[in-house]
Amino acid sequence: MNDTLQNTFVQNTVAFIKQYGFHGLDFDYIYPQCPQGSCHPGNAEKLGFSNLIVKLRTEFNKHQFYLTASVYSEPDKFYEPKVLNDNLDWLAIMAYDYYTSSDPTIGLVAPLFQYGRESSTSNVKSSIELWLKRGVAANKLLLGVPLYGVSFTLADNAKYTISSPAAGAGLEGKTTLYYNEICGLESEGWTVVSSENGKPIGGTYAYKDNLWVGYDDVVDVHAKGQFILEKQLQGYMVWEMSGDDFTGSCGLGKYPLLSALSKSVGQKTFSRKTCKKKQLVCKVVS
């Protein structure tokens, strides 16, 4: 994007914000070098985005507008973290989609920490610590939390633990496979697992026959809230609200994930009634 186009974009954006009474602009900028899934690593898009952010910040300061961005969990490939730190009010880290249904092995959508043979960087803890290491202030970071899961078809029904072989995508939801479509699986005969060999896995999964689903339940999102407090982050964002159990059909009240997350960042204890199902003390385990 050249300077002329960027300048036009900045002026049009300011006019649009003023016209509709908005408070600012949030960029959803996750795969700038990957149009249609074809990635071409390089610095052109990275530098172009930095330049645009600086121009927007300069103009937004005149109007006291917010400037924020939702960004990919890995900072180095697509961004200049220091530029973002110096010019954005906050960054929402999309700390999810570490595993997708196209992967050859099964894994959680957003594991809090590394477990077993998983990549040491494919987890929430590693992502946030890397953004911090790259110079982004903790009070500018929001932790992104998914309200959906990832599903696989097992290559072998007897091999259902983390990192086992997958044979492709599994259970489909009506749109995305949201938590409100997952939380009732146990009552349908699925086996629900939150630890292997006596060790927490940083998330939850459920399996039945050759189908497998990885997701965050109330205990998992509570742990992420505690992680936010531990790292002194600004807060959290979720993708997205309608994925929660908004009808309360799974027996944990309405919006159980959002409630657990909100409570966890506001207090360091959590109702054992909510944790009773898994008979766990809600805390971060790393």
From TrEMBL:
Top-rank taxon: Eukaryota
GH18 domain location: 1-268
GO molecular function: chitin binding; chitinase activity
GO BP annotations, alphabetical order: carbohydrate metabolic process; chitin catabolic process
PROSITE patterns, alphabetized: GH18_2 (PS51910)
GO cellular component: extracellular region
Protein name (Swiss-Prot/TrEMBL): Probable chitinase 3
